[in-house]
Each structure stands twice: as C-alpha cells, then as structure tokens.
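Throughout this review, each integer encodes one residue's backbone shape. One record appears below.

===
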Amino acid sequence: MSLPPRLARRLRSARTWITLGVLAPIGMLVVSGLMLLDLRRDAWEKAEQTSRNLLQVIERDIARNVEVIDLTLLAVQDNLRAPGLAKLDPAMRQLVLFDRAATAKDLGVMFVLDENGDLVEDAAVTPPRAGNYADRDYFQAHKANRHLGLYVGRPIVSRLTGERMVNFSRRIDKPDGSFGGLVLGSLKLTYFGRLFDQIGLGNEGAINLYLRDGTRITRHPYLETDVGVNIAGSRTFERFAREGVGSFVETSVRDGVRRLYTFTRVGDLPMILNVALSVDEVEAGWRAKAVVIGSVVLVLCGLTVVLSLLFGRELRRRAAMQVELARLSQTDTLTGLANRRRFEEAYARACADAGRTGQPLSLLVVDADHFKRFNDRYGHAVGDEILKGLARCLAASVHRPSDLACRVGGEEFVLLLPGTDEGGAHRVAKAVHAQMATLAVGSAGIGPGSVTVSIGLASAISDAASLYHRADGALYEAKAGGRNQTRSAASAAGRPVEKPGLRIVGG
C-alpha cells in the first residue's frame, strides 16, 4: 500500500526526521519523569504505611502495659476497702493489696500514700520504705480534684530506686468522700527504650512519647536531656494536639531535621505517640534509582538527539546532492546553460501549453559563425572561451523566468520563448546580435565584433510540434545567406534577411 504523496514528502524531509528525533527524547524524558514521580510516590506511601504499622504496634504495647498497671491500681483501691485488712500482718496485707504486681516486668515502684503524702504500703518490701511525696505533682493534682481518674505524671527520677520512670496514680477517697491519699504505680523508662530499640528507623529516625501538655516522656534514640522537656507551642506538637491522629512533614525544632511525622493518641490516655522518619532517608532509595534511571535516560536521549541531527544532516546532504545531480543532469558543464535533455523536456511542455492555451511560442536556434576556424586557429581553450562568452550573451538577452537559453550541442544554442510572438522573437534576436558585438577574447587577441552568430527563428500559436525543425531550417537559410543574420521560418522562401541592427520581415 503506497503512502499519500504529501505524507511521503514529509517522511523524506530532513526536518521531519530531526523534529521526530528531538520530540522522541522529550517524550522519553516526560515518561521517565512520570515513572520517577510514581516511584517517589510509592516510596512515600511505603514509608507512611510502615510508620502507621509501627505506630500501631507501639501504641498497643504501651496501652496494654498501662492498662495492666491501671487494673492493678483499681484492684488496690478495692482491696483497701476490704473488711479486716488493717488487722492483717504487714506481709499478708501486702499480698492482698498488690497480689503479684511487684513481679511484673518493667514495673518501677508501686505504693500507697495517705492523705499526708506518707508512704504507708509498698509493693516491693515489708515493712514499707519511708518517704513523703506530698510535693509531687500527682499528689497535689489528686488532692485538688477528686475526679481525675487515672493520672499520668511527668517523668521523674524515683526517690526510692534512682531510676527514670513515669507514674500512674489513682485517688483514694475516705468514706466521707474526702481525700484519703492515692495508690501509685510506675513504668521504668527502660521499658520504652527496650521497646523502641527493636525498631529500625534509620540514622535520623525518631520515636517520641509526650504528655498532652507537651512534656516529652521519652525519646528514641534516648538522650537524658530530652526527657521532661516541654515542646508545647512548637509547630509539630500543635498539630499533634489539635489533630490527634495523622501524618505530615515538618522540620524538627530539636535538631532541624526534616521528617515525616506519623502520630496518634495512646488509647484513652493523655499521651501522644509519634514515629518520625527522616525525609532524606525516606527518599534515599528512590534518589539512588532516580540517579541511575535519569542518567541512563539522559544518555540515551542525548544519543538519540545527536544521531537524529546527524541523520538529518545526512538527509539534507543527500537531498542537496540529488538536487545538484538533477541540476547537473540538465546543465551543460561548459557554459552553465540548460543542456539538450532539459531543452527537450521544456520544449515538449511548452508545445503542450501552447496548444492548450493558444498562446504563441517562439524558438531561436543560434549557431556561432566560423567556429571551427576559431577553434583550429586558436585552440580548444579559446574555443571554449568563445562558447562561454556566447552563452553569457544569450543569457543576457532574455529576462523572463519562462524564457530558456540552452546549449544543444557543439556551437549550437537555442532560446525557447513561451508566450512570445514573432515580433517579440525578432527583438530578442536583435538583442543577441547586439550582445555578440561586445564579445571579445583578449587572451587570443579576438576583439569585439569578431565573433558573430546566425539565428533561425520560428513562431507558432497552435501547431508548435514542428517549431524546432522550422527554426533549424531558417538557421541554414541564415548561414547560406551570409551568416551574422536572423532568418524567420515564415519568410524563408523569400530569402529575407535581418542583419544586426536591421530587421527585414518576410512576406
């Protein structure tokens, strides 16, 4: 199946292939960019899903341990109201109150304080250790408000063990509803460290546990100076407190690292947990792939563009060569005029146009007089100079784009004049004689007027098929009549002659 001519021309055009060669790499770059953006989106989705999963696991573990402690505190509250508890010896009372809570892993201290803040029951030893905790925030909070329920205190250093821990406490009411003290249990911060250490977050990842007021309970990686610091008012914590659950990207107020924060509340507790992944580490794998893929695509696109430009240049060169070969195939190499092949094509086309349009068509057949004599006397080089000079004279005698000057062989030339009647043809012939009068070859001592031409002229309107033969016959008449003249085919029988500068029109 052949292609439409217009499409075929476009496909042969160097500009088309260069354009395609540039657009194709641009398309590759766009597609590759979209693929890289998709890979980046996948990396972020994976990081967010990983953060949510980690957050869920950690939150459940913390909530479960706090729930165990709270159930123990509630049990102590109930057991304190048991009849006859005060009559039991200290060891039995300890067993009734705390059961086996003291053996729980990661439990810090657990004790009962009276309304004065004195330690009256101790889950760790019997008799209880001495101490007064009336100055602690949890004691003052419960004393001031009987409806606190479970109170989560700020992280402190235990006065009994010297360890960092976070306390959970519940108020004890007397029968009349007045403040009767509190029961307290705590978790060592080492519990959080051991829990967080199992999770790989990269070199700049972090896990933070806060109280609702912005106090940091602990952090991973652990630093003692971070514990107890309040970051309320920072952009990150404001979003934690306001939204409760979610994720966002923000720069840390602590170390200036840009991180993906995924956060949630810990059950019903006044605690907020977040997992923070470094943005650089989230995108590290994607960036490595982007560099490799981007480099490969850029190299391939660059090669494509270069090859397209080279291919386009080759197409242009070949097209120029074809044009030049086509020109050379229709050009006389010595004079630069159209050759016989081009004349025959143009002559056939002009005859057909004349027959179709009814416009006149004229033809001049021009031959150099005594050319062989010049050639034999001065040599072929001078003969060639004469022919080239004759060609210049013919070219200077016609001015319309449709007129055509040709060398059809040896010293014979023709002028094809479409749309020109006999009168116009005679004017052109006169111009040729005038131009020839100026021709000289100084190197051979041939002066102006030494070289002349004989011209045979023929015109027709509809029957142009025999025009060349008629003009050629008129040329012979001009030669026979003494040369350096123009003969018209229409007056050949009457032998009229047009000498240079003199026009004789045959009857």
Summary: Residues 333 and 339 are 8 Å apart (CA to CA).
